[in-house]
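Case study 2.
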Amino acid sequence: MKNLILLLTLLACVLGVRAAPKAPDPVFAQITDDPQLPRVLLIGDSVSCGYTLAVRKELAGQANVHRPAANCGSTKIGLRDLDVTVNDLWAFATPQLDKLQQPGNPHFTSKGSEVLAHEIAQIILTALNRKTSRKSKVRKETP
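Prediction:
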């Protein structure tokens, strides 16, 4: 039986039989911007891939949420050349890991990713509101 499986595997390789291509991951899909909304860029590893769609959903109609079309690896790698503020999502998640994270795995459960997405969305909204209020102050002060 093992020989038959090995023979079929080798035959498939020789004939070039391949598995059907996987559907593209919607996390990496390009989005169409609403020009009336601010743009937000999520940069991160596989954990951020887990909450990207939920963040987009939560911020629908409030921000255009983009991400690179790849897993960016660790935050240190993704941000080494950018001058941006980094939010410590790990500090938020650590007290709740037993409820949010997959056991024995660095990734989060679906519910855990939703909780992280909500936290990220709130941080983004706060930052966008600060930016908007600064712009309105500048407009009021300008004669």
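Strands lie at 39-41, 64-66.
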